[in-house]
Every structure is written in C-alpha cells, then in structure tokens.
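Researcher: Can you fold this with NDP in place?
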Amino acid sequence: MSAQIGVTGLAVMGANLARNLARNGFTVALHNRSVSRTDELLAKHGTEGDFVRTESLQELVDSLEKPRRVLIMVKAGAPVDSVVDQLVPLLEEGDIVIDAGNSHYEDTRRREAALAQKGLHFVGIGVSGGEEGALNGPSIMPGGSEESYRALGPLLEKISAHVDGKPCCAWIGTDGAGHFVKMVHNGIEYADMQVIGEAYDLLRSGAGLEPAEQAKVFSEWNKGELASFLIEITAEVLGHVDERTGKPFVDVVVDAAGQKGTGRWTVISGLELGSPVSGIAESVFARALSSKAAQRVEAQELLSGQEADISVGEDFVEDVRQALYASKLVSYAQGLDMLTGAADEYGWDLKLDEIASLWRGGCIIRAELLKEITKAYAAEQKPSNLLFAPAFTEAIAQALPAWRRVVATAVQLGIPVPVFSASLAYYDGLRRKRLPAALTQGLRDLFGAHTYQRVDTEGTFHTLWGEDQSEIAAVDSH
Ligand code: NDP
C-alpha cells in the first residue's frame, strides 16, 4: 500500500498530526529516529486509520506515492537541517518536503532556496493549537511555492480546524511566509496574554477582586466582544483551586513567565522591519522582567512606590474590560501592520483577510474579534492600518475614555500596565499631528550632521551649528 504522506518525528506534535491525517482517511507512513516512538504510536492508536510502519528514511521514502510528501516534525533548529540533509538524496524532482515545526522563517527561506535548486519543494508550515489542535484540527499557515500547495492543500485543509464551514488553512505565500505569519501569530499571543494579565492585576490590586470572583468576570466578558479562547481559559485558570493548599491556583504558581522564543523573534523582526510592535515587545519584556527574581526581591527593599491614596469606583471593572479590548485591538493592528511591512520586504502577497480568517479556529489567539478583522480586510477599501477600519475606529473611540482612565489609575496606584500603556501611546502617537521627532531630527543634525527635511521646502538641509548657524542644502545622509 502506498502512503499519501509520510511523517517523520513522532513526538507529541508529529504523532498527533499523523493521527489527524489518518483519522481523515489518508494513508500515513510513520518514521521516527528512535523506532520505539513509532511502535508506541502504532500500539496505542494504530487502529485509528491506515498507517505504514517504517524504520528508516529510505523505507519512508519508498513507501510514498509520487510526488512524495514528507512532513518533518522534529525539534526546530539543527535537527531539521539534519533530517533534510538525509532526505534530499533519497528524493526525486517534484517531491515535497514539509517542515511543520516552529522554525525561524529565515531558516525556511534558506532551506527553500537550497531545495529549489535541486528541483524539490520545501514548504515551511506554521501550525498553531498545541497538541490538542494538532490532533483535532489546528490552524495551518503554509508557505512554499503555490505549485506545492496544489499537491498539499487538500490534505492540510482537511485536517485543519474549520469555522463556518471554512478551513483554517490557506496558502500564505512563498518560501518563509507561512513561518513568518505563525511567528507573528505567536507575538500577538504574547500580547494577548499580557493584556489579560494586566487586567487581572488591576482587578485584583485595584478593585480587590479575588481570583474566584474574577473567574466569573472573565466568563461574563467571554460572552461579549472579548469572546476568545484565551479569555475562556483565563476564567478556568482563575477559578481553579490548588488541591494541596486550598488556595487559588494563581497564588501558588511562581510569578515568572517562561518563553520559547517566538515572541522574541517577532520583536527582533519588528525592529528590523521598522514596525512599531510595541505591545508585543512590552509583553516579551514583561516576561523577562518577571524572571528577574533576585532583582525583584532587592527592589522591594530598595525602591519606593509612593502610590496615590485613591480607591477605584464601581465602574472600574467595566473600564478595565474596555481598556483590555482597546489594547488587544492595538496588538492585532501592530501585528498585522508588521505583516504588511514583511510582505513589502520579502515580496509576499499576504492576504490579511485570509490570515485573519484562518486564525479564527484551531489556534491559541482564536477570537470573535477575528471575524470583524476578516471583514475589514475583505472590504474593497482595505484599511492601511486595522484601526482605520470604520468598525474599529468607532470601537476604539468608545473605549478611549475608559482606556485613559485605567492607564492613569494604574500609574497612580503603581500597578504596571506595560501593554495597556504602550498600546495607548501607540494610538496617541499615530494620531498626533506633530511628534517630537522634529526635535530628535534637530539633535541628530547638531551632533552628527544627520540632516533634516523642512515642512515648508523640498530638499535636505543641515544647519551649521558650530559656525554661524546658517542653513545649507545638504545631501541626504540620515
Ligand atoms: P520536540 O520539539 O520535543 O522534538 C522531539 C522530536 O524530534 C522527536 O521525534 C525526536 O526524535 C526528534 N529529533 C530531535 N532531534 C533529532 C535529530 N537530530 N534527528 C532526527 N530527529 C530528531 O517535539 P514536539 O512534538 O513537541 O514539537 C515538534 C515541533 O513542533 C517543534 O518545532 C515545536 O516547536 C513545534 N510545535 C510544538 C508545539 C507544542 O505544543 N509542543 C506547538 C506547535 C509547534 P527521537 O524520538 O528519536 O528523540
């Protein structure tokens, strides 16, 4: 029996994707570096569909129909190169190598270019939804050539999550586009989680709501415009009581958040592309600060707070909800704007409506909001920034007074709200008629002759600061 697709790397993600494929009627050849994992999968789940057991990559390749589709799901980084290097000599022109792990998009671009020279397709696909999604329907972001998608799309679309009958999978763009979009998805996920954390802190330290009470608040919020997977599970985590101590679970967990790196990658790319992803950046830094355990202990001894002696009113909970919504919108706007920047840089024709649509199901940032975002980018008149879509301009205008009140109150109470406040600063920065960047340009010209442009005359200028302070036309040197 020829298999329609081969999967190599059968740890939790690979095994679940293989099972998902088999459950959807595809014959799946299985391979793992250590054969024990393959046998474990077959022993536990071998009856779920048609599997072909293989012990070597040669056997895996030989078991596949042509053009061959080999999906790699091994640890990201050097292991992917190692598996690709072993596979390439075994493959024929037109075969497709798929990397479904969390690879950096630059690695994917490099691998795609190298395999294209050998007549092979290399497809980097972003998969979101964790183990559960991989098994029952993830959100899938495939890159690579459009031609490879014709051979791969039907399988991927079948195993992906579906929302309103539509698969949460669509061809994203060439080479590393799929992994890039997955990276930005993760960046938005970081910001999404941080704004939820800030709301929790404000409700706890500002309004005095215990976790159990907050679980009810978040459940309620999950019925409205904030409805999303992350808000839903926030209610679950806040409502959870530690079985050992009987305390709220959040009170027994060490308050240092870990990270695997995709948020950091997003920020680094944002810096390189000149995309102001300040909400995502602050969420990555918030995790970094949380992990500075020793300094935090010292700071509690040494640094004064001098918080204002104010108490919050009855409307505070609703204010926080609105501030959370507005900040979340800004994070999405920043992430999507970064995609626009990357599309220009790398020559990708990214369709933001399709991307927002395939994030609606299966992935961690799935949210009601994405329906409206999809609509905004499907409109004939596409907004150049998500916040300019009429529905969101209006929504944020409504939330603005509450957003300002919450940030001001947080500052007075000494409650850190890095993403609430950075998002508000981004919003105000965007809409401000004159920014102090004019002064920055003046300073740059004075200390480094970096030149400037004038508001009233075309051209590039330099002031002779150390001489008679007259202005001369200059060659633009930035
Ligand atoms: P791991 O990242 O833990 O990787 C383990 C797998 O990689 C095993 O099959 C292992 O084989 C194989 N492997 C490691 N090194 C090599 C090598 N040099 N040569 C061949 N095989 C090797 O597995 P996960 O299932 O957790 O994740 C797989 C990928 O999916 C990663 O890129 C991860 O970032 C990504 N991902 C994970 C998610 C998750 O929730 N876990 C969610 C979304 C994406 P062996 O059994 O022989 O050791």
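Model: Folded with NDP in place. The mean pLDDT is 97.
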